[in-house]
């Protein structure tokens, strides 16, 4: 069985306690590699390496222009290694090779984009009201950043943190999910090839309760950039607040996909299916609530059910496969339990809802559709993170807005309509960090992404997000040779 190692100060090292965990191939439902089960000593070593690198002349003394060039070199290396990294990711979390390869081929754009921004973060000279003073501002990096990522798209989620954070001049300790760490460890090998000094990027694997908790609490960590569940996010937020750490959090979602009667119904049906059944629903932006106008309810539900029944389920490495397995056994059990709980609560199951006995032995669940769901039910309010769609009828535009916003989450929302006046009313009224109109699951390096309410704090991607990895310094220079008239009074006038 293949074994992956932590990366600390540019060296692949085993965990100090020599403890290891198996990593599951969910298509075959068997372990395919081993990863470190790290403890506090491993985290301490990684943070020390990152702190030393941050203060080193090799990194701190590097010009922003040189740093940007290094990020662009990294982007080229990702392109060269996209196939290998995508295949590792598929083996580790069961997502489709077609999607993972598309992600890996697009990832370089983040490093090119932020590489270009690295030397564009200008301060300014202030027109201060004191003639004998010269005052200016400068942007500076924060220090050591802890990047904690989820198992569903490890390298995409990590890139959203690394690209702006490195462009800003920070160093990193990365803690990937214990359910999908292998691709991150393989990815980290590219940084030395790109010319990054040792210790700028460190990767420590382990559980959230073990290595993750110690990393969050470490006094030398200046910022935590986290993607994961809202429950874990609240724990991390409380810990970070106690230490006054900077945080960026992209958490869960229960996103509404809203279809009006005037929409292009074929396009909308494809968008709804993509929103919930792509990636087997294991995506924070899953359109897990279909809000459907009552006048087209039955006909449109038939379209969606027909698409669900035609999904090709199987080997995620096969280009023809449209839906793969769930990523790990704990999550597989959770999704099936949520379906069973919804049925016990009286929700109407229209399609699916059962595990699939696949010849490979993998963790497959049928695409599942529940009909006439109460928006206040657990099914409609709880993030399942699986291929489970709750269909909720509505009558008016006002009704759709109310239903869409009646949730603790606010990550994304979809609107399907040809009425442009309605588009502007809906996008203004929906409580979501991203609203897609006549499309769904579209992302890009130039567009900020993140949630409101229980879906997170801060944003990732986009030009302004580099500032979330920096802090502003104000410098006052006195040009006068005259002594201060009264040294015991603050100089205000």
UniProtKB/TrEMBL annotation:
Keywords recorded for this protein, A-Z: Oxidoreductase
Keyword hit for Oxidoreductase: yes
Residue ranges annotated for the Aldehyde dehydrogenase domain, each copy included: 21-475
Gene Ontology MF terms in the entry: oxidoreductase activity, acting on the aldehyde or oxo group of donors, NAD or NADP as acceptor
Gene3D superfamilies: Aldehyde Dehydrogenase, Chain A, domain 1 (3.40.605.10), Aldehyde Dehydrogenase, Chain A, domain 2 (3.40.309.10)
Active site, renumbered: 250
PANTHER family in the cross-refs: ALDEHYDE DEHYDROGENASE-RELATED
Annotated family: Belongs to the aldehyde dehydrogenase family.
Name this polypeptide is given: Carnitine dehydratase
Organism of derivation: Candidimonas nitroreducens
Lineage: Bacteria, Pseudomonadati, Pseudomonadota, Betaproteobacteria, Burkholderiales
